[in-house]
Amino acid sequence: SSTMSLSEVEVQSACRAWEKIYVDAEDNGTAVLVRIFTMHPDTKSYFTHFKGMDSAEEMKQSDQVRGRGKKVFSAINDKVQHLDNSEAFLGIVTPLGKKYATQLKIDPKNFRIICDIILQLMEEKFGGDSKASFEKVTNEICTHLNNIYKGEGW
């Protein structure tokens, strides 16, 4: 469906949960990427300049990983800002999804991996309520991206 399934209250609590983790976008974004690359080393293949990095420590210190971590969080932040407006939200998610599917050819399972690791970090830092309220957002994002991929023939 093209409409969001979040109520106004859910949007507000999701935004509050996200704000807490987004305050330190670079550090938290980096932490998420380091976990992904460590737990799912195959994901490094999408980032040619990360391939040689094996230790989590090396990744944490890397300006490139830090920059990319911040970018990932900024991209999610753009979507979170429009949770109360389906049209604006889809206006951001759709072109991004098409680019991922057609140009970058990123396996859609990676979106779920990223979302799950963000939720894990939220739970560790801010508890289960934050995680639960943001989980609905990650489900929206992943659902919409998967629909776009289907439309592109994946």
Written overview of the protein:
It is a single chain. The chain has helices spanning 8-22, 25-39, 56-61, 63-80, 86-104, 109-126, 128-151. It is globular and about 45 Å long. The chain starts with 7 loop residues before the first helix and ends with a helix. The mean pLDDT is 91. Helix content is 75%, strand content 0%. The chain has a single domain, classed as Globin-like (Orthogonal Bundle), CATH 1.10.490. Helix 2 packs across helix 4 (63-80) and helix 5 (86-104) crosses helix 7 (128-151). The protein is mainly α and 154 residues long.
Layout: helices, strands, pairs:
Layout lengths: L7 H15 L2 H15 L16 H6 L1 H18 L5 H19 L4 H18 L1 H24 L3
Could you state the CATH homologous superfamily? Answer: Globins
What count of structural domains? 1
Helix content range of the residues, please?
Answer: over 70%
Which fold name is given in CATH as the topology? Globin-like
Indicate the CATH architecture.
Orthogonal Bundle
The CATH first-level class comes to Mainly Alpha
Indicate the proportion of strand residues. under 5%
The count of strands amounts to 0
Broad shape: globular
Describe the main β-sheet briefly.
none
Content-based structural category: mainly alpha
Q: Low-confidence runs (pLDDT<50, min 5 residues)?
A: none
Keywords: Heme, Iron, Metal-binding, Oxygen transport, Transport
Enzyme class: oxidoreductase
GO molecular function, one term: iron ion binding
Family: Belongs to the globin family.
